[in-house]
Task: structure prediction
Amino acid sequence: MIIQPSRYRQGRLEKRRQRWLLGMTLPYLAALVPDDIEVELKDDLLEEITFRERADLVALTCMSHQAPRAYEIAAGFRRRGIPVVMGGFHATLAPDECQEHADALVLGEAESSWPQLLRDFQAGRLQPRYQAQELSPLQNLPVPRYELLNLKRYKLLNIPSQTTRGCPYNCNYCEVTQVYGGKFRHRPVAEVIEEIKAIRRLTGSDFIYFVDDNFVANRRHAMAIMERLIPLQLIYGCLTTANIGDDPEVLDLMARSGCLHVNIGMESISQESLVAINKKQNKIKDYERQFKAFRDRGIGFSVNVMFGLDGDHPDIFRTTVDFLIRVKAPVAFMFILAPRPGTKIRDQLLAEGRIFDHDWTNYCGFKVVYHPKHMTARELEEGYWQANRRFYSPLSILRRQTTHLYSWHMLPFNLYFAWSVRRRRQPLDYYF
Result:
């Protein structure tokens, strides 16, 4: 049994009837399980964990803010004598801590180590840690087993797929390089297209979401995929860097191939803050022009914004929202910096004695766990919520509307986010 833990929120275990978005991790891990082994998937957010489930082995995969719940689930099954395996970003980057709660760990990518662990378990020789000797070449990957999930429990049936892994950038708040390496690796184009066709047959969905950290990391590779997407007549979303807005050939092909939405890691409009997190690839002076290039082609976009960086001063909340309204950003996902394990920013803040909260539950992107440089922790948290409320205020929503169809498609989301932030609920909290 493979379980994705929920998390605690204000002391209560988060439970919902539906998620907005479908994740790839559980179905992909299931696809890596050898055919002679029965596998079941369980989402702790949507389902009850009774600890009476029939299982020979339980596997847990989690991010840092889910770790306390993962440890609780692990303890419940281990008390019954059922071995527990842990993997994912948190286990990879905090292995000594996780080892205290599990019988075995899968560190890093799972393509070779996860099947090996299962064979060792069958043979009665389970080892404490499994880690591949090298990163996956990303060839001949299995199609995630989305048929094992109840797809009716997801509001937006945008099915995840992945074309690349790794990142050469060295942003100090991000752990991707630590897990996936410092170079881009690419799946064969033909295999990506065949997977998408298989996903359509399995799910009936014509909406694909590419979960790559940067879908256009390799221009030639991305364009080859997009050319092959045109005859499939589907729609898709992806993550890219803002500088794609300066490449009209890529943007035109994105529009022709069905790109509906692009999520952009803008992070900050403060040059001092971008320097503080080593986000060298972002050029603030170019943002407005780049965003307009997406909008002119009818490609919707959202931006990620991070507050609490060492270059942030108390006026950062006002100036950021002013900018986002001026550029008519359809949606903005705002976060407070979370110095998770494995990141350089965490090492820095620990060395400076600035982290005061070590409860992983609060490393969720909307809690303050450290002392900011130019404001108090309270000022950061209140400024964060104020920025959210102002950006999703009725006046802001009205001012950000355009004549593009996508702008009107995003109106319900803006209204929904407005409702959630008024209740101090981070909009993305409803997604994951």
